[in-house]
Amino acid sequence: MSNGYLLDTNIAIAILTNESNVINSVQQASCDKMPIYFSVITVSEVFAGLEHEEQLRAEKLFTSKRSIDHY
């Protein structure tokens, strides 16, 4: 497996709530060609706390990055 960043639930929520410092850091990692990953636990935790109308934005975030479902 290549190097990259495994982002946790707090970072996913910060992205979804438009926290600019977090978004800038993740964008910089992408510009540096570093893969961005979310665990399936993070995906599940985020979706569990979302209202129905917020789910589309989260789906876009998680489908644009890789999810890790095994170790």
Care to describe what's here?
There is one protein chain. The protein is 55% helix and 14% strand. The chain has one domain (5-68). It has a three-stranded parallel β-sheet with strand order 1-2-3. The mean pLDDT is 85. The chain has helices spanning 9-16, 20-31, 40-48, 55-64; strands spanning 5-7, 36-39, 66-68. The chain has four helices and three strands, in the order βααβααβ. With 71 residues, it is of the alpha/beta class.
The total of helices stands at: 4
Given helix and strand content, the structural type is: alpha/beta
Mean pLDDT: 85
How many independent structural domains? 1
Strand arrangement across the biggest beta sheet = 1-2-3
Largest sheet: 3 strands, parallel
Taken in chain order, the helices and strands follow as EHHEHHE
Low-confidence stretches: none
Can you give me a brief rundown of this structure?
This protein is of the alpha/beta class and 71 residues long. Helix content is 55%, strand content 14%.
List the helices and strands and how they pair.
Layout: E1 5-7, H1 9-16, H2 20-31, E2 36-39, H3 40-48, H4 55-64, E3 66-68
Looking at this protein, list some descriptive labels:
single chain, globular, 3-stranded parallel sheet, 4 helices, alpha/beta, 71 residues
